[in-house]
Amino acid sequence: MTKKVLIISSSLRGGSNSEIVAHEVERGAVDAGFETEFISLKDKAINFCKGCLACQKTLKCVIKDDMVELIQKVQNADTLVFATPIYYYEMSGQLKTFLDRCNPLFSQENKFRNVYLLTTSYDASDEASDNAANGLKGWVACFEQSRFAGLLAGGGVNDPKEVSKHNDLLQKAYNFGKNLK
Hints:
Blueprint: E1 4-9, H1 17-31, E2 35-40, H2 55-58, H3 67-76, E3 79-85, H4 93-101, E4 114-121, H5 130-140, E5 147-155, H6 167-178
Parallel strand pairs: 1-2, 1-3, 3-4, 4-5
Helix pairs in contact: 1-6
């Protein structure tokens, strides 16, 4: 049985470095034999969670936007890969809103077991992605059957498509995709 890998890019910028890295991870995953789906949040209507917790009883969100379909895709994927640019040493607001809106999954059976994070940032330090990784680890901890399986951080890139000049990082991204679990 082929594992389903869902890759979600949260950057809203055209020529996004994090999205380019995510596509390299996707290419590696495809070459490794995974069934992949790539989703960009760029054109998705995703409203903020209202905190009503109705989803804990109905298993569905009361907000009718693009998250209705996206939640089902997350629930049915074996492996999740989230890509985000780092803003102020944290994940993008789009990704945080997306994760908050996945609240209906909390009380349900989900297929995903391994969750990965891809980041790009201007800051090339090893610590630049720590807060984003910790935020995602907190989300993953809410799903007992799942684990945070890895981080690929690409620092030292800022301008649109700048990462395209960093062949070493693109190769790491490709290899990261080939080795997903």
